[in-house]
Amino acid sequence: MALRTEFAAALNQAAAERGVEPEDVLNIIEEAMKSAYKKDYGGEAEEIDVELDSDTGVAKIFKDKKDVTPPGFGRIAAQTAKQVLLQRIREAEKGAIFSEYEKKIGSIVNGMVQRVEGSNIVVDLGKTEAIMPESERISGEDYRLNQRLKVYIIGIREGNRGQEIVVSRAHKGLVEGLFKLEVPEIGSGIVEIKGIAREAGNRSKVAVASRQLGVDPVGSCVGQKGVRVQAVIAELGNEKIDVTAYSDDPAKFVAAALSPATVDRVRSDEKEKTAYVEVPEDQLSLAIGKDGQNVRLAAKLTGWRVDIKGAEKLQETTKEEKTKDKKSKGDKDKKGTKKTKKRKVSKKATTKKTNKSKEKK
User: Fold this and answer.
1) Residue 320 to residue 71: CA distance in whole angstroms
2) What does the alpha-carbon distance between residue 34 and residue 49 come to, in Å, rounded to a whole number?
3) Which domains does the chain have, with CATH numbers?
4) Per-residue pLDDT for the chain (361 aa), expressed as one digit of tens each?
5) Whole-angstrom Cα distance, residue 356 to residue 79?
């Protein structure tokens, strides 16, 4: 009796420690006892029934409704079922952890870089591990072992080793989550994030609006002396962030989205969903941005096609300048090679002169 009560107490303790329901553990034990009886005494598992007392841990085996429990079966079953039981408890524990993290999809969690497996980075989340694929990393960001960082949970997918949690540092949800952590007005619902356009590692644009009169949404996100937005920038590895005011008027929204450039005039075409923008000549390059990044992010943020007057001419001139620079570099390289050839020739000539002088002597 002592063995049985100790066995039952150990199972209850295992269930409590692992966060698994006791009923699930009892079902696992019954299945394990069936397989143990079949292994030692034969018969089909479907023909065998197990009755397990959850209070005392007493187990009885029935076959065709007859009690066929062998003497000392509890000890034999405990030994045979140990591995099956531990494996099933681990599976149940893993299932409980995955169901917990399934509720956290779309949120930010703290993690630590554990190791590198091929192109994936394994991140320790505390209770379990997650993978961060190469496509979900910030471009140019270096990851060190035991480095602590915040990650965004994308979801759970089937991998080579079963289910695995996938996290990201490049998702725009990470920017939104960081602003929720740093700006209390967003967490309370006074300020709302209307949209985010991001090119991870380079620049992000965030459109915000206020639900309460007298509250400046942009000022709330930036913070006094830029403290709040700087905290987000630091977490993202000094990625540039433009916080702009959202407007229901497409013209105003597009003009704000093109910041830090100033805009003279915006004409919106509802049918084509195109915004025709005019900017001062000295603001043209700023409005377009490096390689068109600023206007591209503004289009993503607003959902409108942005056509800046004079942008095509500026891009053509920049292309021409780049080609000229390449040609000038190529010419310099050619001149350098010619000079080296001349030097080689002169060296050969001097060696010939010295040889002739030696012959005369």
Assistant:
1) 93
2) 7
3) 2-102 (3.30.1480.10), 108-170 (2.40.50.140), 171-246 (3.30.300.20)
4) 334 456 567 666 767 766 667 777 778 777 777 777 777 777 665 677 888 776 666 778 888 788 888 777 666 656 655 666 677 777 777 888 888 999 999 999 999 999 998 889 999 999 899 999 999 999 888 899 999 999 999 999 887 778 899 999 999 999 999 999 999 999 999 999 999 999 999 999 999 999 999 999 999 999 999 999 999 999 999 999 999 999 999 999 999 999 999 999 999 999 999 999 999 989 999 999 999 999 999 999 999 999 998 766 555 555 555 565 655 655 555 555 555 554 544 444 454 545 545 454 4
5) 100
